[in-house]
Specification:
The chain is mainly α. Helix content is 72%, strand content 3%.
């Protein structure tokens, strides 16, 4: 008997979004309540010059926020990997080479995400920064390929909806990449010029990257409506 599971792709996307939001927001709330003055403090200034924590300080510097974040972000890993698998299924017929490239870039991007999440700036600042830079570099071809392929699925019954969602992906990717330049600018103001308050401004753009990153992947809920998984019985044994 055939068993269909249309809910699985959509559930994968929603689970990824919920776990990601819960991880970052949970760490921010816990850090704000328990260690506010410590997580806004940096090597040059503290409160009131700096009053909003960076992502790195929020997720990696203090117990129990760090531990809650790491547990919740681990729950996103299966969903994130399934996202890559489902995207491969949706796009491999239309563009096999780009579909394979998207899958492997997404897989490597997931691995580098684990690098900056589980090796915090307090553990090893260089490794943390290298993994984060690699993650951002891989995000360029990841978002570019996904924007190119997101309306190429042969399974869709609503082409207009896919085209509209492609435009949403373009805008979110523009916002993501557009946030990088001011983020670097304010980081240099903090690190090189030692300007008071610059790290808080840097933190806003760092958090913006997280929001746009999760928002970009959340748009898969539209494309995955066309994906209907089925479990089919195997051929009977002819022996």
């Amino acid at each position: 008997m055939e068993s269909r599971h249309r809910w699985l792709p959509l559930t994968t996307a929603t689970n990824f979004i919920h776990a990601s939001v819960a991880a970052f927001l949970g760490a921010l709330v816990i850090g704000w309540k328990l260690h506010y003055y410590k997580i806004v403090q940096n090597e040059h200034y503290g409160y009131p010059d700096e009053w909003f924590p960076s992502v790195s300080a929020t997720i990696g510097d203090r117990y129990p926020g760090r531990n809650v974040f790491q547990v919740l972000i681990a729950l996103t890993c299966p969903s994130r990997l399934f996202l890559h698998i489902f995207w491969y299924i949706l796009t491999v017929r239309a563009a096999p080479k780009r579909a394979k490239a998207l899958f492997w870039i997404g897989f490597l991007r997931t691995c580098t995400c684990g690098g900056w999440v589980y090796v915090t700036s307090g553990d090893d600042h260089d490794i943390h920064d290298i993994m984060m830079i690699m993650y951002m570099v891989l995000t360029v071809p990841y978002m570019t390929l996904l924007v190119q392929l997101c309306d190429k699925s042969p399974f869709t019954h609503n082409v207009k909806e896919l085209v509209l969602n492609k435009n949403r992906r373009k805008w979110v990717s523009f916002l993501f990449f557009g946030s990088i330049v001011p983020m670097i600018y304010f980081f240099l103001n903090h690190k090189v010029h030692k300007i008071a308050g610059a790290y808080t401004q840097y933190a806003f753009f760092e958090w913006a990257l997280i929001i746009f990153d999760v928002l970009f992947d959340s748009l898969a809920m539209v494309e995955f409506k066309a994906l209907d998984l089925a479990v089919l019985p195997g051929k009977p044994d002819e022996r």
